[in-house]
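Collaborator request, handled under Task 6.
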Amino acid sequence: MAGKLNFSLVAPEREVFHGLVDQVDAPGVEGDFGVLPQHAPFMTALREGVVTVIDGSSRRRFEVHGGFADVTPEGLTILAEQAVELANA
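Structure tokens returned to the collaborator:
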């Protein structure tokens, strides 16, 4: 089993989310991408869109406006210019 992905979503004013999750889907400037535990390292710029955090059957969605995503052996960090959690529909 691959374990969990250490994920942190940070906006200029605060850390919006931090936790161990199963998957994160994000809007990259070159296309949407998903990150699972033990993903190969990479860095990309983000476009405006929705970051979806998946943990088991739970899904949380955050609207982001620009920023960067950095995948390292330690996990995924998204540094967003703006980030707000969307209400569950």
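The cover message to the collaborator said: "Strands lie at 5-11, 14-21, 23-28, 31-35, 42-46, 49-55, 58-64, 67-72, 75-80, 83-85. The radius of gyration is 12 Å. Please let us know whether this matches your experimental observations."
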